Structure formats: C-alpha cells, structure tokens
Amino acid sequence: MLPYLLILPTVVFVILFTVWPTILAFYQSFFLQRLNIARFREPTFIGIENYVDLFTDPRFLRVLTNTFLYVLGTVPISIVMAFLFALLVNRKLRGIGLARLFLFYPTVLPLVSAATVWMFFFTPDYGLLNSGLRLLGYSGPENWTGNPDLALLAVAIVAVWKNAGYYMIFYLAGLQNLPTDVFEAAALDGANWWQQLWRIAFPLLRRTTLFITTIAFIGAFQTVDHIFVLTQGGPSRASTVLLFYLWQERFENQDVGRAATLTVILVALLLIFTVTNFVLSERKEETNA
Amino acid sequence: MLDDVSSSRGGLARLGNWLVILFTAAITLLWATPLIWALVASFRPAANPLGRGDVWFSFPLTIESYVRAWSLAPFNLYYINTIVVVLLVLGVQITTITLAAFAFARYRFLGQRAFFFLILLQMMIPTTALLAPNFSTIRQLGLFDTRLAIAIPYFGSAFGTFLMRQAFLAVPRDLVDAGIIDGCSWQQLLRHVYLPPSIPTLVAFGLSSVCWHWNEFLWPLIITNSDQSRPLTAGLVRFTQLGEIGAQWSLLTAATLMVIAPLFIAFLIFQRRFIQSFLHSGIK
Predict the structure, then answer these.
(1) pLDDT by residue (tens digit) across B211-257?
(2) Are A129 and A230 in contact (CB under 8 A)?
(3) Contact A2 B186 (CB under 8 A)
(4) How large is the ipTM?
(5) In CATH, what number does A65-288 get?
(6) Of B67, B100, B118, which residue sits at a domain end?
(7) Crossing angle, helix A96-104 and helix A151-176, to 10 degrees?
(8) Which of B29, B131, B163 to mutate to test the interface with A (most CBs of A within 10 A)?
C-alpha cells in the first residue's frame, strides 16, 4: 500500500493538470461554444466543424506558416550560435569567465523583462538598432515591430539572443568531456583545427546536439511572452504564432471550441515531434552500437 | 585539443588567435548590450529624455526613475506575490517528487511502469500548452485570481520525479541493506540513507524551479485579475501599458531592472550552481 500512497500526490496533480485538460480539450474541440455570444454560450455538438473551419481559414494558415517560420528559423540559428559560442569560450584565458557570463545571462532573465528592453532597440528613429545600423551606413527599414515584413524577425531575434547562451552550456560541457587523446592522435596525423572540429568534435557531440534540438523545438512552440510586449501578434497577424493565437481565441474572442481545437493541434504537434525525435535517436543509437 | 590555437607557432597563427579573441569580445559585448543599456538608461533624469544620437549617458545620474516606478504600481505586492508563488511551488514540489521518486526507486509494485509513464506524460505535454482547459479547471475549483491558482498546476513534477529517481537509484545497495538490517522505518531510510547523497540533485532541481517560476508570465497573466495576486512579470507588462508611461525609457528600464534584480543578483553570486542546475535540466 505504501508505494501507492507515496506516488498519490504526484499522480493526482498530473491527472488534474495534464491528463484531464488534454481530454477536456479534445472533447470541447467537437463543440461550438462562445462565451461572449448569448445563444452560443451553451456548448452545441458540431462534429469536426471546428477543425474544418480552422484548416480552411486563411488567418489560421497564416498563423501556422508564421509558427513554422519562427520555429525553423530560431532553432537552427540558436543552435549554430550556441556551438560557435562554446568553441569561442572553451579556452583558458583571462576574462573568459566574464565572456561566458555575458553570453549566458539572458537565460535567467524573464522573457517579458528582456522584451521590454528590446522594445527600445526596435524603436523607430532613435532606437539602438537603427542607430547602430545608421553607424554602418544603412538607412533602411526603421519601424521593426510595426512593419509586417520585420515583426516576426524582430521577435525571432529576441528569441535567439535569449536562447543561444542556454544551449551553449550544453556544448561547453560536452566539449570539456571529450577525450583529449583522440585530438592528440589526430593532431599527430596532421589534422588541422578545422578537421578536428568537423570530423571529430562535432560527430562526438551528436547526442548533445540531438538533446538541444529537442528542448529548443519544444521551447520554441511554447514561448510567446515577448510577443505580448513587442508586437501583440501584429501588425495584421504578421507575428502571431500558434500559442499566441490560441490565447487570443480563448481570452479575447472567448471562443472555447476553437481554443480547444487549437490546443489539440498544438499538443499533437508537440507529441509528433517528441516521439519522432525519440525514435530517431533510438535508431541511431542502435546503428552505432 | 581544440582550444590550443595558441600553441601553433608562427606570426600568422598568432594573428589568427588575436582575431578570434577580438571576435569573442565583440560578440560578448553585443550580447551584453541590452543589460548595460538598461542599467545606464534607468539612471537617466526624466527631464532629459532619450533622443536621436543621445541614447547612452546623461548626467547627473539619478535614482528618481526607480522611486517613481515604485510609486506608480504596487511593486511591493508584486514582489510578495512572486515570492509566495515561487516558495509555494518549491516547497510542495520538493515534497511530492521526493516521495514519488522514493516509491519508484525503492519498491516494486503492481502498475509501477504504467504509473511512471503516466507521470512522464507531463514532460511530453507541457503545461503551458494546456492553459485554456486548465483555466476552466481553475474556475471550477473556485481558485481564479489567487496565488494558489498560479502555483497549483506545478505541484506535481514529472521532471523532478525523474531526476530524483535517478539520484535515488544511484544510492549503493549495501547502504540500503545496512539500513534495513538496523531496522530503519521507511521515513528513516529516506531521510538518512537516500536523501543525503541526493541533495545536490535536489538543489539543482530547486534552482531551475525557482528560475522558471520567477520568470513565468503567460499562465499568471490569464489566471490573475487583481494586484492582490499578480506577480512581478504580469505586473511589469501592465506597468508598460499604463497610459502615462509612454516612451519614458528611464521609467521602463527601472521597472524592468526591479523585476529582474533579486534573481539576477542571486545568479551573479551563485553562478556555478545556477549553471550546474541548468545543465541538470538537460537530462530531461
């Protein structure tokens, strides 16, 4: 009996806030329910109409495109920068601790605070980014967060700045755990720095890369805090991603059915990704063994 | 090894090495700019707003923006709310994950694997994605707009349970057997045999939990409706949207830094532990 009592609290909370809401969202996704319209306040069964509506709605397709652009843009760039950072600061040098600190610190800041500061960087006219670009002789686009072509990019820049240092520490730990003798042998065989990096270090860090990719993808789908501060999803939905859209449908439009449908889609995307990644990594382990 | 660029001889290699150092310094500076600028701007007098070509220092430095920001919004309440939520989550999590992990590591019981998998579901379906249905649950429980509502979805932690189970499994078998022969109760076994070597894991988990919940924004934003329960992050965003704030950057940066300060100072002091903790969160 004892073990069941010991796991009881955890099991109860997981059921209440993970299992139950997943089921509830799935159930609600087959109903029409809008809290701000009197005759739709009570749920009505409509089958898969919510899904059909969404996938034929150009606004939603725009949101999906934005989401994939955002995720597929920020994740690889953050990871490449993280690897570069790790290489740069993986040396014994005076002041290198300070460099590590300044590359890593965005990780511990709340994203909304960071975004508040970045808001100034993106400010038209005297904003820091424009001032910097002017210094380089460029006088192009000015209003970053107000320009439909740049808003998503602005949001992505903040995400890369926030995450690269976090992923860096995994590469740094990985680099420091690499066996030294392999590199010594390679150096004796005349391998140059670039070959050592590309042929030895990178393959040996494959597991690290796979792990970072997983947390980066899952993270990218669920971080929208900075969007609230910088663009509110605009202008004209240019920077609306899936989770932000879900929030809008549920809390601005009070559309329970549609929000539930979006929840199901988001959960499905996350699960598909996690499972695929897991299967891929298992398979690779096997072929390596 | 890879870092031994300097060991190669010759002027060209040395030049290359200097270029790498210069590049590192440039990137570091670029990454540090938001923090440095925010610090500088927060001490700028309000009478001297930022303008084209004048975005850095302006004298005399003053703390008036901090004083005004503090008076414009109830930051004292926000602080208390954040601290209460963070400690509540931490306290409950440490208890639940320790007990559950102990059960999974110490005992064999019917349905063990099924229960473990059920808990791990929380790692596959992040709570953030479930905010719409969870909002309904909180309403039904009558917890809307309370600090408990912010904290309660995180009371069970799959990640913490997983981490602690790993730590408990690493406790040497002999030690456990010795404890059992000595007639230890399960509480004594947990307290004197399992927990002591697992403290570093618990600390690592605790730090990442504190960081995560200090910084959390979206869930508190939707589940709170008054300053009585609103934490710092949600309070800051409300503050930035106050009509009277506009583009008063010294005020905005002062408020931002106030929100960051306690956790950030702790990070500066315990850097190594924080980074270890974030690395630990890597075993996911």
Answers:
(1) 999 999 999 999 999 999 999 999 999 888 876 666 788 889 999 99
(2) no
(3) yes
(4) 0.89
(5) 1.10.3720.10
(6) B67
(7) 140
(8) B131
pLDDT value of position A289: 41
Beta carbons of B284 and A101 less than 8 Å apart? no
Q: Are B141 and B219 in contact (CB under 8 A)?
A: no
H/E element holding B44?
none
Asked if A2's CB is within 8 angstroms of B97's CB, the reply is no
* Other CB atoms within 10 Å distance of the CB of residue B110: 9
Residue A149 to chain B, least CA–CA distance (Å): 23
How many beta carbons lie within 10 A of that of residue B209, not counting itself?
22
Residue B155 is inside which H or E element, if any? none
CB contact under 8 Å between B132 and A263, yes or no, is yes
User: Which of B6, B12, B18, B31 to mutate to test binding with chain A, by most A CBs within 10 Å of its CB?
Assistant: B31
- Which tens digit of pLDDT belongs to each residue from A101-149? 999 999 999 999 999 999 888 887 777 887 787 777 777 667 888 888 8
Kindly report the CATH number assigned to the domain that includes residue B158. Answer: 1.10.3720.10
**What pTM was computed for the model?**
0.91
Structural domain range at position B212: 69-280
Min distance A141 CA to chain B CA atoms (Å)? 16
- The H or E element spanning position A44 is strand A44-45
- Which residues have CB under 8 Å from B40's CB, separation 6+? B56, B57
Mutate to test the interface with B, among A11, A17, A218 (most CBs of B within 10 A): A17
